[in-house]
Amino acid sequence: MSDAHAPAGPSTQATDGIHRVRVLLYSDDITTRDAVRAAAGRRPARDVEVVSWQECATAEAVVEAMDAGGIDVAVLDGEATPTGGLGLCRQLKNEIFRCPPVLVLTGRPQDAWLAAWSLADDAVPHPLDPIAVAEAIARLARERVAVG
Length: 148
Known about the structure:
Elements: E1 12-13, E2 19-26, H1 30-40, E3 48-56, H2 59-68, E4 73-77, H3 85-95, E5 102-106, H4 112-117, E6 122-125, H5 130-147
Parallel strand pairs: 2-3, 2-4, 4-5, 5-6
Antiparallel strand pairs: 1-2
Helix pairs in contact: 1-5
């Protein structure tokens, strides 16, 4: 995991209009994690800044991090093994009160129904389109601030 020392609490929108968010990123595949971080960068949109990435390679680490709080957006790889991000998303949405928005990475565009079943807030299929990933993270960050 990285940036585990990020401050707890809801994301913030400073007087400068920038949404500053902490993102949890789950995949057992480091190349997928690298691709997501590269796609989003530090500024997935002009008004959204990722202040920290908390990377997890196991479902247990995700549950622990989400229970600890301080996460504004979660990105879960549906193709991760042995625990896929779709089932993990459904678990988190059912078990965590006011669960942060979750973006799932699906195996293919036709798996959108699985994303709906998982209760995900958004989905992007593999192969990852960097623009779609950045836009989805930015949109979910804005929604988190609006609700939070």
